[in-house]
């Protein structure tokens, strides 16, 4: 599981950095729009799979990951309904569905993965606990 955690973390990091670079390049050329969507899709697939695996195999941060998985599933259902024209949406709602929601979910799960891989090992004890009085 340790190897999976590290691969998962660094794959997410690489994809998030790549997507952010492509998002910045959209200002130069609109052709990078497709690459941003592709990177978002890959991040989403990786994080959904990772979330399922870690919920099944680990109890660390289980509630937060179940919350992420639930929100991601609801988002995907709304995205599928919107893409099949069942729900008519405005341009603002489309931008929120296309960019804001996926990035928020991706960053939230990346933070969970960060905490899962690098737990805070500081002791929340007394001040100068190595000194006994």
Automatic annotation (TrEMBL):
It comes from the Bacteria. Keywords: Membrane, Transmembrane, Transmembrane helix. The chain crosses the membrane at residues 7-28, 34-57, 69-89, 95-116. This is Uncharacterized protein. It comes from Pseudochryseolinea flava. The lineage of its organism: Bacteria, Pseudomonadati, Bacteroidota, Cytophagia, Cytophagales.
């Amino acid at each position: 599981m340790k190897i999976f955690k590290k691969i998962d973390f660094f794959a997410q990091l690489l994809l998030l950095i790549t997507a952010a670079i492509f998002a910045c390049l959209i200002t130069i050329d609109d052709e990078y729009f497709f690459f941003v969507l592709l990177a978002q899709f890959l991040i989403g697939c990786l994080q959904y799979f990772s979330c399922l695996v870690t919920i099944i195999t680990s109890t660390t941060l289980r509630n937060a990951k179940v919350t992420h998985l639930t929100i991601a599933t609801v988002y995907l259902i709304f995205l599928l309904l919107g893409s099949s024209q069942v729900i008519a949406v405005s341009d603002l709602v489309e931008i929120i569905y296309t960019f804001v929601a996926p990035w928020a979910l991706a960053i939230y799960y990346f933070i969970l993965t960060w905490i899962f891989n690098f737990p805070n090992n500081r002791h929340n004890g007394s001040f100068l606990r190595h000194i006994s009085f």
